[in-house]
UniProtKB/TrEMBL annotation:
Top-level division of the source organism's lineage: Bacteria
Binding-site residues, Mg(2+): 14, 108
Record: active site: 109
Cofactor: Mg(2+)
Sites marked Substrate discrimination: 19
Lineage, uppermost ranks: Bacteria, Pseudomonadati, Bacteroidota, Flavobacteriia, Flavobacteriales
Subunit structure as annotated in this protein's UniProt entry: Monomer.
Keyword set includes Magnesium: yes
PROSITE patterns: UMUC (PS50173)
Biological process terms in GO annotation: DNA repair; DNA-templated DNA replication; error-prone translesion synthesis; SOS response
Annotated protein name in UniProt: DNA polymerase IV
Keyword DNA repair (UniProt): yes
């Protein structure tokens, strides 16, 4: 059997160019113009780009220098994350009017399980349309959505009719949809994996489906079994409304590279203050401290230490960070530093996980 017996109705809602759209909405002078959130300095990185900027090839995670080179008319806007969180909260409230099974992935996207929903509406497609309309009426922003039997297919589908569109993949369409899908469109297949698949003659879902689980495991390790199942429409991951935070961290990219550990300690102290605020807000502590160092040649190095006890105190964190910094000689000038805390005390105890309840669907999407 290639499709799971107990089907669910999952919606993936993805805001369209969220950060950039918020800035254009709040500042009418930016509407219709190519803008990039972040990346305003020679060392900066683009956090988001408007659709007008994307036409020139500007993308998130691109350096501000390259973005400006691709689009000379590009307007850089300083990020306002508190504002984005505020708007995201408005959107989250709309989701909760339909179901309590909402799993946020970030400020601008989330999964919703509407198999059983508060509106008693049997059509996930109509629910998605209604949610998108309410988001627009409430925030003035557009959203796209994907609707299908599991999280994997819903996420892939949400990218199909962007911006301001949606796509439903009904249960009887799933296998054909996946077989015709370009391998680069599979969620979880990055550029490196895509290139490796190309070398193995895997260009579409149909090509992937032709490979045995043994073959895929041999070439892709543990991910091989994942690819084997998702191309057959099998992805049983539940929508988890209370996603457990695995780590908390803060990092800064600097306008000028740092060459002295003395200056690095000064910057790390500022970073630790931000981390301290986040830890206090979440009321959590952790055992593993990681120092992230990105050099001027863009290579990244991480140094970690796990303590036998939980800590959240900034002074203790900085004590360990200094130890990690001086652990090895800095090989080059540094453009980014970050501190994160993991192995947190908020992880679920064994046996406390809620059992997933499967529901057999008998009606149309």
């Amino acid at each position: 059997m290639e499709l799971q017996e107990s089907l669910r109705k999952i919606i993936h809602v993805d805001m369209d160019a969220f950060y950039a759209s918020v800035e254009q909405r709040d500042n009418p002078e930016l509407r219709g113009k190519p803008i990039a959130v972040g990346g305003g300095s020679s060392r900066g990185v683009v956090a988001a780009a408007s659709y007008e900027a994307r036409k020139f090839g500007v993308r998130s995670a691109m350096s501000g220098y390259l973005a400006k080179k691709k689009c000379p008319e590009l307007i850089f806007v300083r990020p306002r994350f508190e504002r984005y969180r505020e708007v995201s909260y408005q959107i989250r409230k709309i989701f909760l009017d339909y179901t309590d099974l909402v799993e946020p992935l970030s400020l601008d996207e989330a999964y919703l399980d509407v198999t059983i929903n508060k509106k008693g509406n049997p059509s996930a497609t109509m629910i998605a349309k209604e949610i998108r309309q309410r988001i627009f009426e409430t925030t003035g922003l557009t959203a796209s959505a994907g609707i299908s039997i599991n999280k994997f297919i819903a996420k892939v589908a949400s990218d199909y009719n962007k911006p301001n569109g949606q796509k439903t993949v009904n249960p009887d369409e799933v296998l054909e949809f996946l077989e015709n899908l370009a391998i680069g469109k599979f969620y979880g297949v990055g550029k490196v994996t895509q290139e490796k698949m190309y070398q193995l003659g895997i260009f579409t879902g149909a090509d992937l489906k032709a490979k045995s689980v043994e073959y895929l495991t041999e070439h892709f390790g543990k991910s091989g079994a994942y690819y084997y199942h998702v191309v057959r429409g099998i992805h049983n991951s539940a929508v988890k409304p209370d996603r457990i935070v695995k780590s908390v961290g803060t990092e800064h990219t600097f306008f000028e590279n740092l060459v002295s550990e003395v200056f690095m300690i000064e910057k790390l102290d500022d970073i630790s203050k931000e981390l301290d605020k986040r830890l206090k807000k979440k009321k959590i502590a952790g055992k593993t401290i990681t120092l992230k160092i990105k050099y001027s040649d863009f290579t990244v190095q991480t140094r970690s230490k796990t303590l036998p006890y939980y800590i959240s105190d900034r002074a203790l964190i900085m004590e360990t960070v200094k130890e990690l910094l001086y652990q090895k000689k800095i090989k080059d000038s540094v453009r980014l530093l970050g501190i994160s805390l993991a192995n947190l005390n908020n992880e679920e105890k064994e046996g406390e996980k809620k059992k997933e309840v499967a529901v057999q669907l008998r009606f149309d999407f």
